[in-house]
Amino acid sequence: xxxxxxxxxxxxxxxxxxxxxxxxxxxxxxxxxxxxxxxxxxxxxxxxxxxxxxxxxxxxxxxxxxxxxxxxxxxxxxxxxxxxxxxxxxxxxxxxxxxxxxxxxxxxxxxxxxxxxxxxxxxxxxxxxxxxxxxxxxxxxxxxxxxxxxxxxxxxxxxxxxxxxxxxxxxxxxxxxxxxxxx
Length: 183
Hints:
Number of domains: 1
CATH class: Mainly Alpha
Distance between the termini: 29 Å
Radius of gyration: 16 Å
CATH architecture: Orthogonal Bundle
CATH topology: Hypothetical protein af1432
Strand content: under 5%
Order of helices and strands: HHHHHHHHHH
Largest sheet: none
């Protein structure tokens, strides 16, 4: 089922590239799933890690996920899909949407929090490496979100805290980042 989820995500993301570099988008869900594999996990968690962005970034729906991968995976992907997006809440500015998303995500399941922590780790590394301008907005948002994700896997929580603090340090000291694989 995990291989099927990876291939589904690969097809759904198609030729999409990461915003902060020119690598194929699918590399991000692969890294997120890899991080989730380093801690206690289920097959459904790995599938959801591969699929965590398909509803936000492609025409795929939660119903499509449920039909292909079952209720457990669909529930995780639904928990991981941002609710407070500009298209649904155009009257809210980014700060308000992110604040509401932090509150919402503080109440997601432990499994979803674990996957989201892996997502925060990978995105934070990527953004610090490739877009310091956007990082000035993004990293403080991730500091608030990481706090809300307490209850997910503790090891990934600590890694996420480290990456966010490292990002704040880089921003506050205008230092270049030497590489993606900082542990």
